[in-house]
Amino acid sequence: MPRRQFQADLQKASDGVSIAGISDVRPGADDGEFTFMCVADGQQLEVSGLVPDLDEYPSRHTCMIFGSDNASASVAAALNDITDAVTGKTIPQILELVSSRLESTDGDGDQQMLDSQEFDDFDGDDDDEEDEYFPGDEDMMLRPGLTNNSATATGEYSEATAAFRQRIQHDLLIAKSEGFKVGHQGGLMDGLGCYISISILISKLGISEEAMQAWQLEPTEYLVAILHYPIGYKSMDNVKSFDPHQGRQSFGIRVGICKTYKPTMQEAIAAFTVLSKEEEKQREHSQQSDSQQDASSSTLPKGFRDSFISRPLNELLEHRFHLLLKYRYGGMPWHGAELFYNDQVLHAAHTHQDASHDKYYEEEHVSNAWPNIVTADHITASTGQQHSLPLVAMQFVLRHFVRCTEFCLICFSKMPEDLQAIKPYVCDNPLCLYQYMSLGFGPSIEHEILSQPKVVDLLISFCYTSARMNRLKDFPVGLSLAVPPPVAIEGDYVTNVQPYYPGRLNRHAPPLPAATTPLPVVAALSVRFNASALEMLFDDCKQACPVTNGNWIIIRTDDDPGKALHCRVIDTSLYPSVKVSEPILPVISEAPIDPYASSRAHPSPSQAIQQPQPKNPAARLLSPNEFRSASFYIYNQNFDDLDDHKGQTIAALISMLPPVQEMKTYLLRIRKAQSPLSAWVDRLSPAALGVLRWIIASNRACILQVDNEDDVGNGRKSEDRLYGMGGWEQFRFAMGAPDKERRFIQAVRNTTNRLNLKYPTLFAWHGSPLQNWHGIIREGLHFNETHHGRAFGNGVYHAPDVNTSMSYSMHGGACWPMSELKIQQALALNEVVNAPSEYVSQTPHLVVAQLDWIQTRYLFVRTRVDYAAPVTPVPGTKPLDCVEQDPSRTPRGVDGPLVIPIHAIAASRRPKAMTTTKNKRQKASGKSQYDPIEIDDDDDDAASVATLEEDRIIFEFDGDYKTRHYDDSLPTPNSISDKGKSKMGAIASFSSKIFGKHSSSKPLTDYLPGTLDYTTLPMLQMPAWATTSATKRLMKDFKDLIQVQRREPAHELGWHIDEDKIDNMYQWIVELHSFDPTLPLAQDMKKRDIKSVVLELRFGKDYPMSPPFVRVIRPRFLGFQQGGGGHVTAGGAMCMQLLTNDGWSAVSSIESVLLQVRMAISSLEPKPARLQSGGRMDYGVGEAVEAYIRACSVHGWTVPAGFKEMAYGGSDKAEDGYKRF
């Protein structure tokens, strides 16, 4: 199994690997994570790997590789490149690739740095020393895989000045003030790569409950836009100066759904990980499987996930947002900018469009039903002010997320205004449909079949009937489906048959014009066919083989030409003998059928089928094992080129589909392999599968099956099931735009207040023949066409009695033979504003012209097959909570007055349940996750318990990153005074105010803290050049370090800081202790009774943008020429690239610095560190500075600006007073 394989590989690597530079491989904290130590730029670096989906290991999995905070920019870039290359590789292969890319070739990963004094004696022209090895020389050579250039092609990292940080704070505060939640990950305030998340609760977007169901959202989830700044934060002013390519390189946006207001760092990284098309489909399949399991268990999906529209929306943001911004600042509104882009780029002719045309500057009319946060425009509302890029980006995301049904999902052109859909789709451009289907932007048919098989059956049945009755208006044009030529199926599918409407003469639903174009002449190919051996035999072997492997064909034997055998070519290698798959014999039903005329000479649905429907249609083929003369046609007709035969072809392809339950069984059987339905190559032709995808993807209504009471439900069967329609299948049904529910509620409230209504709404039936429902669920209810006459005016016709609507919904066409529902009739139950006096007519029918007054609630289908058999409908159980209806206008069903469950209406209109809790955030009591949810505005991040401190601190500490002038000195330990205390007491008080009280524990080591005599050390005063930003950062880092020291045992930590002795934040004294007793250094220290190595860390005014100066004060180490090592120069300075501008990262923690310094001193390669015997003990700061500069010169490292000023505590020269230290 994949998980076992991963664990086995990880255990094998943990036991020991022989890969250069790789060590200490171990499992990580999360599932699928592992960590290891690796050498990068001469330093030990902890690297982590994460396999998000172990089910795909070890063949198709992705793996994200990232280093620790102390990784340099060059190493981080190399690791990012490695991430793209490790897909499908095992753990040992990943480790080898990391070692190769980072050039980890040393035995234990350490590289001895050349002593600066020894370099003075080195003569490069001396042939005798030509082969002498100086550790660190290899660092002087260029490394193509790890350049030190930390900038990209678009520019340098952002400089973290006070103005830079103020702009960040300004931009994020603006977004916060507009009602959004703000979070961040990475080095945002330090000008480094980072992620900013802008989010909002789904419940605040004004999306109807039906739209949430259709979009698979929960009101308690967050819509999150992640903005990635790979080279530091960029403001709107920066972005406006970039060209589109630079803009895409400087920042990117990803959109998704999360149960919290911001994703984790790993989730943010994964959101921007570039996957192949196949990998993207696999990830979506995995997410859909997870969401399906979550739905069955009534729990929300965990973590950050893609929404139903994330892929097309991410494409829009990636390729167009930067140009659209430029158009916006040219004076165009969003819709004008998008229109200009489409005219200029997508539909550009030989001449460019005139950008001054008035249509690009017209004001956009947006429904006032949306909340202000959805329609707000920061650019227009803040003219002449600085604009917040995160806010503008989020407002653009909301425009296309909440109002997604108003735009084509591919070209993002505006859809027709009269199109009311609850699900987004594409425009009439065939290219858009092709991209929509080929790029996988549509819904997953596999997910739909597994989760709602009855709905899929319903959709296929509606389309089949509409195709047989020649009522289809739109077709899957643009997909270039290879279908049988029309002559191959001529006569099998009769269309344009008039349906029967009892009691209504001359009021038939008018079919579309019948086919008038003659069938193209396509000659059939002759062959002999053996049905038992599944073999075709061609008589003339000299002719080229007319078929290729994978072709689908239709075979008709000469002795039984009425049977069309559809099969796939499997093997042509033995031509003239060709092997085919088991043939499929489609079942073709006759039409029309009048199911209520039992005394008439109409066949029942079971009689309408030519033969009894077996489980496998191919089982009909029971012929002798002999070759029979036959002819065949190849599926080589482009569906797009058909004229008047598209409907007939659609019906033929649908009849080829297996029953939905059979498709579900197949998917469950191969679920572990995560194979799509297209893998069923011998049962589903690509053309039939394409039509199936089109049927499901083009459905723009929200249809949810309501379980029968004896079914295993999803927890809502008793809450959604209506009483009074026994014998009918029930579906929750919603149509219209996502704001349709809000417009309906607004109309209900306005009319109720105006007419003082006791019962604001009523329920009524709407019936229509089956052939119309394929169009209804795509276009919504309207009265653009006359189907049954308009004797009572223009509007949508309703009836309070189901029998009236049933007379309008008589079966008007053939039923899909493979359907398990066997649909004979369909009715909609609508909720209507209760103002009959304002209807077009109220007797004998309710005719409503105001479309906003109508909201669909239920779809009922009659599924009984044998109408001659006596059936006693079971009314079912009445719902516990029901809608209070107008007694004079209560609709009637087949079992009497309808009892409608309370969950049929919007949550905002349901009576509030009594609750004993006072928690404003707690959900109201009830069994359904769709109960009313009361959530506070949550506009103030500082007051929100959900906001993390790391995000809240940006807004809480006004001026935290600003230069502030104080009356006295900068905030230092000495500036905090306590009355009645000595200076040392005040210092201790300062420490306790930062860190709080703590209790000490006895260390398990011979090192005793507090024994170091600080009077013998070169203690400095607070420097005059100290800055507020550096001081506050140092205080924070110092606090973090002390917290680590208190948390970890001293013998395991290996270093100690006496917090009560630190009086100057720019100078820290650190003791390294408890070395491995087997090290020569530890043995030397024991002989001399030395308990610790005393280090000094000096920080400059540019910290954390510049590294600290780290040197040894005591004891003195042997130089390299004397056999010593440990990365300590002859002057005592640490010689490590990490501590130079080339290796330093502003996100590096001091804890990681101390760890790497300790590791460098403990290194045994090429020589171990040893102590010097006798002589003076302490290093002077002057010799350390000179040795550091010489070492940087040798290795080509960059000395930080102002290094001497920082190292000498404020002077550029090594005065005598400093030299003595």
UniProtKB/TrEMBL annotation:
It comes from the Eukaryota. Gene3D superfamilies: 3.90.228.10, Ubiquitin Conjugating Enzyme (3.10.110.10). Residues 288-298, 603-613 have a biased composition (Low complexity). Residues 104-144, 279-303, 596-620, 910-938 are annotated as: Disordered. One of its GO terms (molecular function) is NAD+ poly-ADP-ribosyltransferase activity. Transmembrane segments: none annotated. InterPro entries: ARTD_PARP, Poly(ADP-ribose)pol_cat_dom, UBC, UBQ-conjugating_enzyme/RWD. PROSITE patterns: UBC_2. Coiled coil: none annotated. The keyword Nucleotidyltransferase applies. Residues 117-139 have a biased composition (Acidic residues). Keywords: Glycosyltransferase, NAD, Nucleotidyltransferase, Transferase. Residues 1029-1198 form the UBC core domain. PANTHER family: POLY ADP-RIBOSE POLYMERASE FAMILY, MEMBER PARP. This is UBC core domain-containing protein. It comes from Decorospora gaudefroyi.
